[in-house]
Amino acid sequence: MLSKSQYLYQAKLIIDCLPKEEYDSIPKKTLNYIEENMQVDPNIKINPDISLEEQDIDPQTWKFLKDVVNEVDSNQLYEEYKYEINDYVKDINEQNKGNEARLENINLNNDMDNLKKENQKLPQAKDLIVGYQKLISQKDEEIKKLKQECDSLTDSLNRIPKFIKRLFLRNRNLKALNEKNN
Amino acid sequence: MNTEDKKRLWFCSDYGIEFESVIKKLNKNGEEICIVSHDKQKNWRDISDENKEKARVAEENGYEIYGVGLNGILTGAVVKNLYHNTGVSTLEQVNEIVGDRLTLDEQFISAYALGGAEQMVQLSEKLKMNQKDTNTVIENVLFRNRRAIGIPLEKEAETLKQIQSSGKGKSDYEILVNLDQSLRPHNDEFVRI
Questions:
Q1: Do A89 and B136 touch (CB under 8 A)?
Q2: Interchain contact, B161 vs A78, CB within 8 Å
Q3: Are the Cβ atoms of B140 and A99 closer than 8 angstroms?
């Protein structure tokens, strides 16, 4: 396992073997970072005539080089598309507005349908409430009327001659009524 | 991989945003295409006899036969099925074969095909896009993918409303990712026929 300064030196030796075009694509700040942090080690050597897979490359060197490649790829991607990004996002924004409006419209339509259904129930509920209020308001009057009818019935019963009353009182219900009235 | 000098015949599913983009690209480049349906023709053995014959005749005439969204083999003809492999989307492979350039939109579709919203975020970082623009693009790609799968707008609106009322997502991005996750298990129910 190499130290940081050693694997950076190994990476530098590999990078130096790259064709000019590839070498130039590496950001200057990365090259400077390597230069500033590496340490020359005569024991570390790279043979440009043999593939890297066949040479003793430290795992940290591989990882560092992979990061460099990713950085180069990212930069190239950005350079290729940087002038298109704004127009693309603007276009996408417009599309999204349309999409959102469509979704909102559907939800609004669903809400409207639900409201229509609920509204259909309102007249029935209104009738029920009005009827109930009417019943409540008539309650005392009805009780009074029933009481009067009851009193009138008791008077009538009292006015019946006794012998006829006796006949009726054989009936258990009338007897009970009579006892209750008394 | 570029086979510009060869004649090609493509059999392509139109399921999802990636395959839809593939079809668009093939049409743009004047390629010959037969569209197969995702629900009934996922395998070469299931495609219609007419299309099988078409593939065999094309091969006899020196065509390369490609399958996008198709598995298996076709008896009597050599077919090349394209799949996502080692970080290369089907769309990118098609792009390379026809010798075209990926548009920015296709870059995002490829990223989505390879690794969903997460991969799109990585791509937007490379492109130095801000969070708001990234979310806008992801929202759009997810929306179009649901359209390309065949999820009805009504179902999407209903699910979106449920997510919003349940408070599952706070930001627009969270809501749209929740929406995608909620609808994904039902994707096959909405396959277009």
A1: yes
A2: no
A3: yes
On whether any CB of chain B is under 8 Å from the CB of A103, the answer is yes
Let me know if residue B1 belongs to a domain: no
For residue B72, what are the CA distances in angstroms to B60, B68, B81? 20, 11, 8
CB A165 within 8 A of CB A174: no
B120 lies in the same domain as B137: yes
Mind listing the pLDDT tens digit for each residue in A99-146? 878 777 777 877 888 888 888 888 888 888 888 888 888 888 888 889
CB B37 within 8 A of CB B92: no
Question: In Å, how far is B131's CA from the nearest CA of chain A?
Answer: 12
Q: Does residue B138 fall inside a structural domain? A: yes
Please check whether residue A42 lies inside any domain of the structure. Answer: yes
Is the pTM value of this prediction over 0.95? no
Nearest residue to B153 via CA among A101, A111, A103: A103
Q: In the structure, what pLDDT confidence band is assigned to residue B193 with cuts at 50, 70 and 90?
A: very low
Q: Is A114 on the interface with B (CB under 8 A)?
A: no
Same domain assignment for residues B14 and B66: yes
Instruction: Enter the tokens of residue A133.
Output: 């209020």
Residue of chain B whose Cα is closest to the Cα of A103: B157
What's the structural domain count of chain A?
A: 1
Owning domain of residue B186: 107-190
Say yes or no for a CB contact (<8 Å) between A103 and B160. Answer: yes
What are the pLDDT digits (tens) for B27-57? 999 999 999 887 666 889 988 899 999 999 9
Residues B78, B119, single domain; the answer is no
**Assigned domain for A43 exists:** yes
pLDDT of residue B177: 75
> Which has more confidence, A119 or B73?
B73
**Which helix (H) or strand (E) covers residue B55, if one does?**
helix B49-60
CB contact under 8 A, A106 and B139: no
- Residue B42 domain flag: yes
* Same domain, yes or no: B150 and B137: yes
What tens digit of pLDDT does each residue of B150-192 get? 888 888 788 877 887 887 666 767 777 787 778 776 665 554 4
Cβ–Cβ < 8 Å for A88, B104: yes
Are the beta carbons of A92 and B129 separated by less than 8 Å? no
Same domain? For B98 and B184 the reply is no
* Substitution target from A75, A79, A81, A83 for chain B, most B beta carbons within 10 A: A81
